[in-house]
């Protein structure tokens, strides 16, 4: 077998193609609700975090955005009333981003359609066993190549 036929190329290529295809299928739903992809990523991470908050530095690391990039996204969310910034008396060096009640309402309106699209283009195509295996495999890879995604 030559390198051109190596199954490692097939595995990485299929993962990239699946990712690109999913993004193409899911982005119109985000846009229909007035959300850019980075805005949704930040908003959902905040909503799923303890207390609905994360330090700005952790949020930047988890979203693979620069400090200035995360600042711009949180600025946009804050301007729309979806997020706030807060300082904590016990940690004066850090600023936290916090999802607001309005931000949660946006997610509540958006998520049923978004979950239906995820089911249509990803989870609904797999058996429960395939989905479990996929989740386990993706976590294994993610934890190695992007450990910051789960840091707090």
From TrEMBL:
InterPro entries to which the protein is assigned, alphabetical: HTH_MarR-typ (IPR000835), MarR/SlyA-like (IPR039422), WH-like_DNA-bd_sf (IPR036388), WH_DNA-bd_sf (IPR036390)
Gene3D superfamilies xrefs: Winged helix-like DNA-binding domain superfamily/Winged helix DNA-binding domain (1.10.10.10)
Occurrences of domain HTH marR-type (ranges): 1-143
Pfam families referenced in this protein's UniProt entry, alphabetically: MarR_2 (PF12802)
Record protein name field: MarR family transcriptional regulator
